[in-house]
User: Fold this.
Amino acid sequence: MKTLEQTVAQHRDEWKARSLEQQRLEIENNEAVAKLYGLEDEVLSYVPLERVSLTNNSAFRWPNKTPEERDALFAQSAIVDLISYAVGCMFGRYSLDEPGLILGDQGSTLDDYLAKVPHPTFMPDEDNVIPIVDGDWFDDDIVERFRLFLRTVFGEQHFEANLRFVNDALGVKNLRDYFIKTTGRGAASKFYDDHVQRYKKRPIYWLFSSPKGSFNALIYLHRYTPSTVSTVLTYLREYVTKLESALQQAERAGNAPEADRLRRILVELNEYEHDTLYPKASENVVIDLDDGVKTNYPKFGAALRKITGLEASE
Assistant:
């Protein structure tokens, strides 16, 4: 089995060949039209590769970059697309075993998925909640799920090399930094930023997020039920319990900086539960997909990560 790097390189080379062929056809077409009207000496027939408007023509997408930079950007774009597709498989929107959209109706369930894909190669998440936190606190968080996806699709043999390629292509030290990166201003998520941009500020995956991003959980809108927020709350409480245990260990070890860090996070998460998530879970919010994201997203208030520009017209 090929490595992921080899697969991306093959994909890149195929698109280079397609782009060059399209360039040749456009030049031939221009020459034929110019000849037909006797304009060979007046009309320029040549078409620069940068003007061949194919989506994956690197010269068109990044006209001001060097060939080496274009190759790196192509690899990055391919991996970002792969992760987006992988998350779709995690939620059952897509399947490795069947083409097209699998779960796309309101209130879709895992049983609906299994009715269409009885023996999935990659099983979707059972409860429609995937935690995203800074650290290996959950066995089923988004990083572990993607690692499993990578193993499932590209095999165990080249797993470590494939994972390194993913990190290098994304420009991160480790995969978790792409999904959640704690900074002085809070937590940033390149993954969710890409998703919001990809869906033009009308995301289909919604990110429950505490004020400073110390706790995050992703859900799939089409599998949402009024009890989904309660499931998110369960994950939050489990995380708090784990952090409280870690705090006790830090205190016993005399690790004051770590203890202080954990206390700050626990204050944030306890306030998030008390002021925001628990009240919202108690509401059992009902949504109608036909109302659209612009109408439904604000129903959850501060429980969800703020999307700048959500209020703008379609």
